[in-house]
Inverse folding.
């Protein structure tokens, strides 16, 4: 009788092809042995590699055979155990085991009957234990070779019960040692008996063939772990090596993470995966498992780690720098692809990013050509600018072919500003092929993280929240099995004990194993060729319940010099380099000590073989730090900072390590009593603050400056005036940009109070005025600016129409004597007092424009006068831009306005002032270009300007540009679905930027698109105001709010929007009312022209339908029509079709039918030619009314059908419904 079992593989082996279709195990082994002893010449390195590959294949083949034999024996035993008859196999040997091997299958059969079909029975009673011992001998022969000194006999020979395996350490045992340690464990544990145990752990002996089978199958499934050729090396040297990123258990959590990656790749929709848990539970390791499948798909990972010491706002930049450092070593084609995408994406923001990400500069090879201004004019701008730049950069890195995982670790150490940046990155609609990963610890500091995650989810991004706790017993068993190369079945009791003592916290479990090894309770015995341990001793071992205390105990067992090194390293933060550590210690750094700390698992090298080190876990970092007595921590930090400072050999080196010096010294400030030393440390804080400002870490910079101020003496203004003034001025700028207005006010007041002259006050004044404007106190900001200008000797006269007209004409006459080149090549302004004057005038121009526009032309003329007299500077440009707007507004001279706007743009380009150039572009495309250039081109330019303004950090004007882009998109007749999408995107960005002023006007404008599209039931443009202005739920609420707060510009916009909708929906009474309420502003904005257009159309409608007031309505209509003749002369593209339609309506109202019909046809043709699909539809609809009134019903139907087709292309489905219903 033969018992068979099959073990299947998916690969084809050359060995299997050389063996007969069915043969005994003995024959198979002899065939292998003959192949091994074939003579060969000395091998080349390539041949050696091929030989090694063949040896690995051979081991895999032997493992297949071993699994097949064990599987057959297991099935026999299970039959006996279940009472299905039969008995244990008894005698089986190399000769009565038959193999059937193919490319995909290996079958083993045991022949346990003789030639007369009688069962072969060994003498005495045979047991399962003896079967298992015999299996060990068989497996030894399979893996080592026939009769490998293990007591194996030929078929037919009986081995008695008293036969024992060879005990002599001869050739056979040495061969077994050359096997992977894992297989040696299996064989030796099978061959050993209970009698051989001699006090060993009971689980080191197998209870069933099923256990052996499972362990062999595990080896086959993880050959890289269990069958590695060097598995003996660490064991022989009694070294315990636990892989730092080993991963155990958590299969369900990992499947959710992998599914999230699949979702990103399949649908192009970002997913946020958050993992929370207590310290040491393996949160980071879980999320790191995404790296391999991501790389297999051609993707990248960006990983940043927050900690208690590192400023949070630097972590994202550090992560990006590490990422680009790796990119620079990759394939040149990949680098070229990334460089192209980055250049197209970040444009003028590249220089700023490269200053904060050095490896990005290395990748891009050359600096951005356009110089940038780093002075920022709003408290939120720097943060918003960085936010936008990072978003653009990440969008450039990731695409469908190069998906990205953006992993931020330990978010519980993250501050509110950085969480806001992370939320903006996750929420950006342009970033599609990105998987966002975040981990955080469950403790009292998590509220900011959970609030951010809730906000991300509420705004529509899919959030997968995972909460991890301790790993299960099987995970600890796998950890111990892989670390010690012990088969899982043989280390159950050890893993159960470790799990119970450490609570399954993976960090605790690994360090407990290391403690056992360091204490000699877990060691490798070369005699038994096993890791030895005593379960009872380990059970009695007491350990702290807190992992940090346990780690501290481990560190205390190190030599004193190693402990001191780790304590100093702990003061340097989570990451440090060996050179810095050398500067912080006394004497020469022992490199061996660092590497021993790496081997012990306390530290890791950031890059293998590199000079930078990180702590293996922040709990280890904390444990090392807590070994410093509390009373000595302050002095230790001061000593370390002082040592680094004294060891800096140059200013360049000082600048490199200034943060490490100051961060340590500042902890020990209370120990510094000498005022000279305090002044010296104050200067170091000034240097650190300036470096932080240069990298736009404004919160950190403000803190450094304020520490420096705190170190100054009480009488510093008398005895140390200049350094005190420099520190206060630097602090005022940093506090303004950081948004700490309460502290800013105190610093400004102190600076102004102690300043010896006006010049020293100007920097503080400049911050104060911007602070007032940012705080929505624009009127106060304007009054303060006027007061400052008065101190500088400048004042504006009372504005009268006659004075304004004369000043504009006289300035125009002067400028007409100059060519563009005269201005561009004119002298540069160098007088600092005059420079400050123009800088404050530049600020004033913004305030006057919104609150007191009557004085705006006078300020423009005065700025030009000063520039012509003293020279030109960046702020001179705003004088020319303001003069251009005044020409348009007051003199209504479109050509002159356009000319000087273009010259202002050229001057700003000449000064390489990118931020100023974009500001002028925003004004130009919003107010000026539409009178000369096609509005479709202006609209596209505004969109680009909006993007570029975000890149340079001007949030206010970026929002203004975005709003005007959306408004002009409506006027161009762009498809409403696209306009709606753009408006929704603008809403999100305005809400992120908290720019409420633009959003108030934008929400009402967005309502137009929603109503025309017929989506009022599903969309509410006022929803983003919740939490900011909760009382606004609709347009009526908005109107009441802006009327009560004096926001006349928004009131005007709402009334125009209502006029627009009322006319299109044929509510002519409401249209007339809104047109009457609408009041034009001093500046001639675009909506003034459209107000005239729709008011004129409304007036001509009433002129035909109101006999009593016909004359009144005709006068209103003709008055509105008149300026269109001038505008159309300057821009046929934008205004001709509107002029023609107004003229058609006028002739129709006057019953001049032939002229009316001619104008209608011309209006339709002009709208079609200039791509105003909506106004083409309107002209057709009005032409249909004309024909219907004259009884030409067939023609009326044709034109109403044409109108319907135009509205359908436009996407105005509500208008189509209105046409169908009427």
């Amino acid at each position: 009788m033969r018992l068979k079992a099959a073990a299947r593989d998916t690969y084809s082996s050359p060995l299997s092809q050389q063996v007969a279709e069915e043969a005994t195990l003995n024959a198979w082994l002899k065939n292998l042995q003959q192949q091994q002893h074939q003579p060969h010449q000395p091998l080349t390195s390539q041949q050696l590699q091929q030989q090694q590959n063949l040896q690995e294949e051979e081991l895999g083949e032997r493992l297949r055979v071993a699994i097949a034999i064990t599987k057959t024996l297991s099935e026999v035993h299970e039959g006996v155990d279940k009472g299905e008859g039969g008995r244990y196999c008894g005698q089986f040997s190399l000769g009565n085991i038959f193999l059937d091997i193919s490319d995909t299958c290996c079958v083993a059969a045991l022949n346990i009957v003789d030639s007369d079909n009688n069962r072969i029975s060994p003498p005495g009673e045979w047991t399962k234990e003896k079967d298992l011992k015999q299996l060990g001998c068989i497996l030894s022969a399979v893996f080592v070779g026939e009769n490998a000194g293990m007591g194996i006999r030929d078929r037919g020979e009986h081995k008695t019960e008293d036969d024992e395996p060879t005990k002599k350490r001869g050739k056979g045992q040495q061969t077994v040692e050359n096997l992977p340690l894992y297989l040696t464990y299996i064989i030796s544990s099978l061959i050993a008996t209970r009698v051989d145990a001699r006090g060993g752990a009971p689980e080191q002996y197998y209870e069933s063939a099923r256990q052996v089978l499972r362990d062999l199958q595990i080896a086959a499934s993880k050959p890289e772990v269990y069958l590695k050729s060097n598995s003996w090396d660490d064991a022989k040297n009694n070294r315990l090596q636990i892989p730092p990123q080993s991963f155990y258990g958590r299969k369900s959590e990992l499947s959710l993470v992998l599914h999230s990656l699949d979702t990103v790749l399949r649908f192009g929709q970002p997913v946020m995966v958050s993992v929370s848990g207590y310290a040491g539970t393996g949160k980071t390791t879980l999320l790191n498992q995404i790296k391999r499948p991501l790389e297999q798909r051609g993707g990248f990972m960006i990983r940043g780690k927050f900690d208690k010491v590192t400023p949070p706002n630097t972590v994202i930049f550090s992560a990006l720098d590490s990422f680009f450092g790796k990119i620079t070593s990759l394939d040149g084609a990949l680098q070229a692809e990334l460089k192209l995408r980055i250049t197209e994406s970040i444009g003028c923001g590249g220089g700023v990013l490269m200053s904060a990400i050095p490896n990005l500069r290395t990748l891009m090879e050359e600096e951005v050509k356009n110089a940038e201004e780093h002075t920022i004019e709003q408290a939120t701008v720097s943060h918003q600018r960085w936010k936008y730049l990072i978003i653009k950069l990440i969008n450039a890195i990731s695409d469908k072919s190069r998906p990205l995982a953006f992993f931020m670790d330990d978010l519980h150490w993250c501050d509110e500003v950085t969480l806001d940046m992370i939320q903006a990155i996750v929420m950006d609609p342009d970033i599609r092929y990105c998987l966002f990963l975040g981990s955080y610890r469950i403790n009292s500091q998590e509220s900011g993280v959970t609030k951010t995650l809730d906000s991300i989810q509420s705004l529509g991004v899919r959030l997968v929240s995972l909460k991890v706790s301790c790993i299960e017993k099987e995970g600890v068993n796998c950890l111990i099995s892989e670390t010690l190369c012990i088969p899982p079945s043989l280390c159950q009791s050890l893993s159960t004990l470790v799990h119970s003592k450490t609570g399954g916290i993976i960090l605790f479990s690994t360090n407990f194993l290391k403690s056992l090894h360091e204490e000699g309770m877990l060691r490798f015995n070369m005699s038994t060729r096993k890791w030895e341990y005593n379960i009872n001793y380990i059970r009695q071992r007491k350990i702290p319940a807190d992992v940090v205390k346990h780690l501290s105990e481990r560190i205390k067992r190190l030599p004193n010099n190693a402990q001191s090194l780790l304590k100093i390293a702990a003061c340097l933060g989570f990451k440090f380099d060996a050179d810095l550590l050398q500067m912080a210690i006394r004497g020469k750094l022992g490199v061996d000590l660092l590497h021993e700390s790496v081997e012990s698992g306390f530290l890791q090298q950031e890059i293998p073989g590199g000079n930078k080190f990180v702590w293996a876990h922040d709990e280890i970092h904390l444990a090392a730090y807590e070994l410093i007595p509390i009373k000595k921590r302050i002095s230790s930090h001061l000593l370390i900072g002082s040592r680094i400072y004294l060891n800096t050999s140059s200013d360049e080196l000082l600048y490199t390590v200034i943060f490490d010096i100051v961060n340590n010294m500042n902890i020990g400030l209370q120990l510094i009593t000498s005022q000279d030393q305090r002044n010296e440390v104050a200067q170091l804080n000034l240097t650190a603050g300036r470096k932080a400002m240069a990298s736009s870490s404004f919160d950190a910079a403000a803190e450094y400056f304020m520490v420096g101020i705190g170190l100054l003496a009480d009488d510093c203004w008398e005895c140390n005036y200049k350094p005190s003034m420099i520190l206060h001025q630097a602090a005022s700028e940093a506090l303004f940009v950081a948004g700490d207005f309460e502290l800013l006010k105190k610093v400004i007041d102190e600076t102004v109070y102690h300043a010896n002259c006006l010049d020293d006050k100007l920097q503080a004044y400049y911050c104060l005025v911007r602070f007032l404007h940012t705080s929505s106190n624009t009127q106060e900001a304007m009054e303060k600016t006027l007061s400052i200008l008065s101190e500088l000797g400048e004042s504006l006269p009372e504005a009268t129409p006659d004075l304004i007209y004369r000043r504009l004409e006289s300035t125009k006459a002067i400028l007409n004597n100059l060519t563009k080149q005269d201005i561009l090549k004119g002298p540069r302004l160098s007088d600092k007092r005059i420079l400050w004057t123009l800088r404050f005038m530049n600020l004033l121009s913004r305030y006057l424009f919104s609150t007191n526009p009557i004085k705006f032309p006078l300020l423009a003329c005065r700025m030009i006068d000063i520039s012509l007299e003293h020279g030109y500077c960046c702020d001179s440009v705003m004088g020319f831009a303001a003069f251009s707007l005044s020409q348009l507004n007051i003199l209504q001279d479109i050509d002159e306005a356009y000319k000087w706007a273009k010259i202002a743009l050229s001057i700003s380009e000449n000064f390489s002032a990118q931020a100023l150039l974009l500001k002028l572009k925003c004004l130009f495309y919003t107010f000026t270009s539409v009178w000369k250039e096609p509005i479709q081109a202006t609209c596209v330019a505004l969109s680009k300007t909006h993007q570029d303004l975000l890149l340079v950090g001007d949030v206010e004007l970026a929002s203004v540009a975005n709003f005007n882009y959306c408004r002009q998109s409506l006027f161009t007749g762009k498809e409403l679905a696209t306009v709606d999408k753009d408006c929704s995107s603008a809403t999100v960005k305005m809400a992120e930027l908290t720019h409420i002023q633009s959003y108030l006007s934008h929400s009402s404008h967005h309502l137009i698109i929603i109503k025309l599209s017929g989506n009022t039931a599903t969309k509410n443009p006022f929803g983003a105001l919740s939490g900011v202005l909760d009382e606004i739920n609709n347009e009526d609420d908005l109107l009441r709010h802006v009327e009560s707060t004096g926001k006349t510009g928004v009131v005007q916009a709402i009334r125009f929007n209502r006029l627009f909708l009322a006319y299109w929906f044929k509510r002519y009474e409401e249209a007339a009312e809104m047109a009457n309420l609408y009041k034009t502003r001093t500046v001639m904005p675009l909506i003034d022209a459209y107000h005239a257009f729709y008011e004129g159309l409304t007036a001509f409608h009433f002129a035909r339908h109101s006999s009593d007031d016909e004359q009144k309505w005709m006068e209103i209509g003709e008055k509105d029509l008149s300026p269109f003749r001038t505008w159309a002369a300057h821009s046929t593209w934008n205004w001709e079709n509107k002029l023609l339609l107004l003229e058609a309506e006028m002739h129709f109202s006057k019953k001049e039918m032939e002229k009316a019909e001619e104008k209608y046809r011309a209006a339709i043709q002009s709208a079609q030619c200039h791509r105003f699909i909506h106004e083409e539809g309107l002209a057709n609809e009005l032409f249909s009314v004309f024909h219907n009134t004259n009884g030409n019903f067939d023609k009326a139907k044709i034109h109403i059908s044409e109108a319907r087709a135009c509205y359908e292309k436009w996407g105005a489905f509500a208008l189509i419904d209105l046409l169908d219903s009427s």
User: Anything to note?
Assistant: Residues 678 and 711 are 6 Å apart (CA to CA). The first strand starts at residue 2 and ends at 8. The longest helix spans residues 45-81.
